Amino acid sequence: MYQPLVFCVKLQLHFGGDIHEISVPAYDGAEPTVNDLMNIIERDFRVPRILQNLVFHGQELHPHINAPLSCFGIKNLGLIRLVGRMAPADKIQQINSQYSPHSYQQTSYSPQQQPVVISTAEQYLSYSYPQNRSVSTQYDPPKEQPPPTPDKEKLPERQATPAE
């Protein structure tokens, strides 16, 4: 009888200020891929694939979706950082379908459009900035001169009151 061989990598996932232990399986003797990891994260942590940003030792994993985890040097109990936002369970499919399957970051403009340039009068001002009072803890000297300090010779001496 044929039994499928299951290969599993146990990882530590740093997400939301906590470290979670997850298992990433792969079937038929194949190594787990980044795609398998992203599926587990989407299922267990409700972070849509499109909003996942996976980092291992400074390397971003999400652009290399079909690469095995071992090609990044990920071994058992390796620590992976997940940067992403959770979504309600019923919205995950909708969020993923809004983006193309190979687009990981939405661009703010399409390449066919020409950029719109808005000119303002402020662009043509010279580079002299008015000196404003500081808002921070810096010392601003007073603008008015303080009153002159009286001479000690002109001050009347205080009379000591006798203690009774």
From TrEMBL:
UniProt-annotated stretches for the region Disordered: 129-164
SUPFAM superfamilies assigned to the protein according to its UniProt record, in alphabetical order: Ubiquitin-like
Protein name (Swiss-Prot/TrEMBL): Ubiquitin-like domain-containing protein
Xref: Gene3D superfamilies: Phosphatidylinositol 3-kinase Catalytic Subunit, Chain A, domain 1 (3.10.20.90)
